[in-house]
Design a protein that fits this description.
This protein has 163 residues and is mostly beta strands. Helix content is 6%, strand content 43%. The protein has one domain: Thaumatin, CATH 2.60.110.10. InterPro entries: CetA-like.
């Protein structure tokens, strides 16, 4: 006779509540490059991803972890770092950063830039259904704004062409 309880427990553990996705959309005429820090597998910096003009990239929201640790003491936020320069993460080029922290059933997110404004003269928007939009109408920092939403909602960053 089989005891199915262990199998049911294992199955239930594998079915997590749905989480949203981070989505980056490029409606501008030029490609850009992004890195996820840390990536979903625990690497400190994910591989460079090219987002072509008219293209998009997406991945499920995840808790930032360094290494293979599942300890809560090693969790951190996630930064999606975007540059117009192919090696921008490593050359002090201007970076647009969509940061988020996934905690329980909530996700907190914000928009920032370092080393200048990579999308100066372009509209940059972050939306998440049911939450207020973060918008940099001309690609310039519009102030420190953090939003939160249910963790099952997508966070969508759209970089548009020249305004």
């Amino acid at each position: 006779m089989y005891n199915i309880l262990p199998a049911l427990v294992a199955l239930a553990a594998g079915v997590a509540a749905r989480t949203g996705s981070s989505i980056v959309v490029n409606t501008s005429p030029d490609p850009f490059y992004l890195w996820v820090v840390p990536d979903a597998n625990g690497a400190p910096i994910g591989n460079r991803i090219t987002v072509a003009a008219g293209g998009a990239w997406t991945e499920p929201l995840h808790v930032g972890r360094f290494g293979n640790s599942n300890s809560t003491s090693s969790t951190t936020g996630v930064a999606i770092k975007i540059s117009k320069s192919i090696e921008g993460l490593y050359t002090s080029a201007p970076l647009q950063i969509l940061g988020y922290t996934l905690a329980g059933d909530r996700v907190w997110y914000n928009l920032d830039a370092v080393n200048g404004a990579p999308f100066r003269g372009q509209r940059v928007r972050v939306t998440s259904e049911g939450s207020e939009t973060i918008e940099w109408a001309d690609g310039e920092d519009a102030g420190d704004v953090t939003r939160d939403n249910a963790a099952d909602r997508d966070i969508v960053l759209v970089v548009s062409g020249k305004v």
